[in-house]
Predict the 3D structure of the following.
Amino acid sequence: MKRFYDGLDDEIKVILLNQIRNLWTHASTAIEGNTLSLEDTAFVLEEGLTVSGKPLKDHEEVVGHAKAIDLVYQLLDLDRFTETELFALHKAILTERVRDIYKPVGGWKKAPNYTSYIDQNGKQSVREYPSPQYAPKLMAQWLDNFNAFFKQELSRDAASQAYADLHLDFVTIHPFSDGNGRPARLLSNLPVLKSGFPPIVVPSTDRQAYKETLSSYQDTIPHLAEVDDMAAFPNNAERTRFLELCARYWTETMTLLENAQMLQRKRNDRKL
């Protein structure tokens, strides 16, 4: 099974994986409001130290996300992905010590969840995601789609499409009471990684466009709270727009990979 870091000496491979881990962790947690910079994130993960004046919660989120990335790489060896692995990843990401029985970690939501957004008329509104009673069925369908992608070696375009579709559908279902975006951005990369590409990472600088595109898509689904079948998720212009965004979100990790490959070529030339 090919990996994006194939052909790299161990030292260069470790550097590349650390750089991608730092970028992926910073970007994904920053989208959710984490205040640690990329430099702070790298310092915490590489030195094992805290950053003065920054919240403990932000440090824990960064460490949890990095551990979840390690788990993602381990999951690449599976033939099939199940809710057991999904729940394990959710537990790795959510690091808060105080638990609410109505907001389970590593289990489907038990209460309705909502988000505030600006509607097409520029007014503040509230969106309710699919009802908790429908989450198991919807996620069973999502897992079927995931495994259909996961068992294939995808082309670059197909890998980007798989990432976008899985990502968009996951956050539209919103199966967890808390912590839906980070798992979506991790899990949707598994078919990408298994096909030999580096992960697609949503940059924190594009947070507004990213969230607006997700919201615009969800706004096209009437009575979202009552949706009990993924057949209700349309293939429309908003979905296409999200796919186009995701294709752009490969830039940073592709650049890191190219830099590592260039370094490897220089090392190889010196050996001749």
